[in-house]
Specification:
heterodimer, A: about 240 residues, about 35% helix, B: about 290 residues, mainly alpha, ABC transporter involved in vitamin B12 uptake, BtuC, 2 strands, ATP binding (chain A), ABC_transporter-like_CS (chain A), amino-acid transport (chain A), transport (chain A)
Chain lengths: ~240, ~290
């Protein structure tokens, strides 16, 4: 299924530190245009750090992160979203005291998008339309996740980073999130998805990268993984 | 004077105090709310506003209203600029670390105070009020200017509320306050927001000082009381809550006015401080604050 395609995002030789503690060791990663790439690995392997490094929220000491040929390392964090990268953080991180409409407005402001984008996003999550005036902290977990994704999609991103979007949600919500990711792939958005659950991965991903100790050990096509799930056991110890 | 009119007079005096206090405390509350910086030098920005008001109004000849209006516009702008420079030179370099910025702003307090002493001197100097109209009530006459302070403060508070809740600038400020990391992920230049908020906070203190200086006088040590009272107001009202700040300022100002008139100013301070202690024990997030997540 994956023929050689244009690259949406390329990470090479990325070193990242929290203070003096090194978390990423020369991480390499390629995200092709229009694919869903899943980062899979144990807690503390460096998946979330990889996403934060792409967003410029964790400084990188070495290596490069390129989107469409544009170097992101060295950009101030607030300029990264303007390059077309949107982020749905772990735990959603909504502006909880603000209304749904205000959260969406913040997303729209990031790249100066207007009414048309807002309509498209609300079309994707019709439930949010009835909640616009509601304070976002009072939404249910699934609705909050939808809002976090809606807020990110207001950037009309080329690259979408999703950090454990199904964490703590009920099965019907997980299905809905998965469906949305699939829809976005059809519309040409390239997605990096961080996941802990292998079943959540197999149904939506095109390829899977196994992250271990801050390195990308192996990137496998999802068909291969379905046929032979031994890699999951090797890197994560479950499955 | 009978009790009723006496109470009215005390309440009016208290409201003037409240008006100035609300503006000053709002500046402190904004800076803490958005930047998590406890600005100990806040009172010095207040003092600078008053001293600059004296300098500007004496430099401009003609009707006192002219000099006062110039001061009302220019003094806060200059103070805002000074705050902006000190934010870039000091707070930003400390990475807005909560402990380090307390110590740093204590340093700023002394630097600003001593500079004022050096260039302005130890005298207390008056600024002429822009008008001296007296409103005649059946029992006593009352300064029209003092009433205009209350009106001006109310207007500025409403304007601040409007900016915070109804404009994009306010949206960006609130997003930065709630989650600065996520704000950055949505293209908000957090360090520029910080610089703006710090300048805005100082400007609110400076405006308050310009308003009060025609009835109190400019002095290089005048920043200490407003700082203390602002902290009291912000703790009682709840940090980062505009409504709480205003309610607490009215409460403290009114009780200060009324208790000072009928009993003694010392008792007023004792009660205000006791109130702070009670709030800290029973409702640490303040009357209108939300508990931290």
């Amino acid at each position: 299924m994956t023929q050689p395609r244009a690259e949406a995002l390329t990470i090479s030789g990325l070193d990242c530190f929290y203070g003096e503690v090194q978390v990423l060791y020369g991480l390499d990663l390629v995200l092709n245009k229009g694919e869903v790439l899943c980062l899979f690995g144990r807690n503390g392997a460096g998946k979330t750090t990889t996403l934060k490094a792409i967003m410029g929220l964790v400084p990188s000491r070495a290596g490069s992160i390129r989107v469409d040929g544009r170097e992101l390392t060295g950009l101030p964090a607030h300029d990264v979203p303007k390059a077309g990268v949107a982020y749905v953080p772990q735990g959603r991180r909504l502006f909880a005291e603000m209304t749904v409409a205000e959260n969406i407005e913040i997303g729209l402001m990031a790249r100066g998008k207007g009414k048309a984008t807002r309509e498209n996003v609300l079309e994707l999550f019709p439930l949010l339309r009835q909640r616009l005036r509601q304070s976002s902290g009072t939404l249910s977990g699934g609705e909050q996740q939808m809002l976090a994704m809606a807020r990110a999609l207001c950037l009309e991103p080329q690259v979408l980073l999703l950090d454990e979007p199904t964490e703590g949600l009920m099965p019907s919500m997980i299905a809905k999130i998965r469906e949305t990711v699939a829809k976005l792939r059809v519309s040409g958005v390239s997605t990096i998805l961080v996941e802990q659950r292998v079943d959540a991965v197999l149904s939506v991903a095109d390829r899977v990268s196994f992250i271990e100790n801050g390195r990308n050990r192996e990137t496998v096509d999802v068909e291969k993984l379905r046929a032979d799930p031994s890699a999951v056991r090797r890197y994560v110890g479950v499955g | 004077m009978h009790f009723g009119p006496h109470l009215l007079l005390a309440a009016l005096e208290g409201l003037v105090t409240s008006a100035v206090l609300a503006l000053t405390a709002l500046g402190l509350s904004l800076v803490f709310g958005v930047m998590r910086v406890v600005n100990v030098a806040h009172g010095e920005f207040f003092m600078l506003g008053a001293v600059l008001a004296w300098a500007i109004s004496t430099a401009i000849s003609g009707h006192p209203a002219l000099g006062f209006l110039a001061a009302l516009v220019l003094a806060p702008l200059i103070v805002g600029l000074i705050a902006l420079v000190s934010e870039r030179l000091v707070l930003r370099r400390l990475n807005y670390n909560p402990e380090a910025t307390i110590v740093a702003t204590i340093g700023m307090l002394y630097i600003i105070q001593q500079l004022a002493l050096t260039f302005y001197g130890p005298e207390a100097r008056p600024v002429e009020p822009p008008f001296s109209y007296r409103i005649l009530l059946p029992w006593f006459g009352y300064s029209g200017y003092k009433l205009s302070i209350i009106a001006a403060s109310a207007l500025l508070l409403v304007a601040t509320w409007f900016v915070l809740t109804r404009t994009r600038i306010g949206l960006v400020m609130r997003a930065t306050q709630y989650d600065s990391e996520t704000a950055q992920a949505f293209g908000i230049p957090v360090d520029r927001v910080y610089a703006g908020v710090f300048a805005l906070g100082a400007m609110l203190a400076a405006v308050a000082a310009v308003l009060i200086v025609p009835i109190s006088q400019a002095h290089y040590l005048m920043g200490q009381d407003p700082l203390l009272l602002s902290f009291i107001v912000v703790i009682i009202g709840g940090l980062g809550s505009l409504r709480g700040t205003v309610v607490a300022a009215v409460l403290i100002g009114l009780s200060d006015g009324i208790i000072s008139v009928f009993f003694s100013p010392t008792l007023a301070k004792i009660i205000a401080t006791l109130l702070v202690a009670m709030v800290l024990v029973f409702r640490p997030q303040g009357l209108f604050g939300t508990a931290s997540r």
